Amino acid sequence: MKPVPQATSMRRAPVQRRSAERLTRILDACADLLDEVGYDDLSTRAVAQRAGVPIGSVYRFFGNKRAMADALAQRNLERYAERVTGRLDDTGGGGWRTAVDAVLDEYIAMKRTAPGFSLVDFGNQIPLGSRYAEPNTRVADRLTELLSGYLERTPDEDLRRVFLVAVETADTLVHLAFRVAPQGDERIIEETREMLRAYLARVLD
User: Which of 26, 38, 128, 161 is the most buried (most CB within 10 A)?
Assistant: First the structure.
């Protein structure tokens, strides 16, 4: 079992395997309850009960439910990066359009299947305060680092800006697709894909 990455909102990181497994159960319970009751009705006590841990175990890691949701968002980002990496490893090349397809397809897949993702995803429902910690900036920075080698591009400020614009655009349109249809309107998703390709072509071709 891979350890849960430490979010900035966590009080402490797990050291022992038993502690890491407990944290995983807490975040899994948080994700399930988000789907069932929503963020407003989420409580640390309910999470503790669902996870089968004492309430003190939750407070050992998190001061409140917002901090817990932020840690879940960070875990979502780590899992998303792993999925995109795995997809690119399987393709064994294919150019930047293949990479864009992997980035968009894996995001759509998580929107459809990952517990709690529809509300929290990478933190877009959580006011983090600092614009430098905004969720889409975190995603764009992660994708820049992840894809720069695959694209044989230097991860400079120009590439980071391009990916941030692409992420912001895709995020808005994908949320629209899921407002139109519960599983995401396929026509809007394909329009999103075409817009991303047209925008990125002027930089990556």
Answer: 26
Sign of the alpha-carbon dihedral angle for 97, 98, 100, 104: positive
Q: How many CB atoms lie within 10 A of CB 129?
A: 8
CA neighbor of 6 nearest in space, from 55, 75, 85, 65: 75
pLDDT tens across the length of the chain (205 residues): 333 344 456 666 665 788 889 999 999 999 999 999 998 899 999 999 999 999 999 999 998 998 899 899 999 999 999 999 999 888 776 789 999 999 999 999 999 999 999 888 887 655 444 444 578 888 999 999 989 888 888 888 999 999 999 999 999 999 999 999 999 999 999 999 999 999 999 988 8
Q: Which pTM was predicted?
A: 0.85
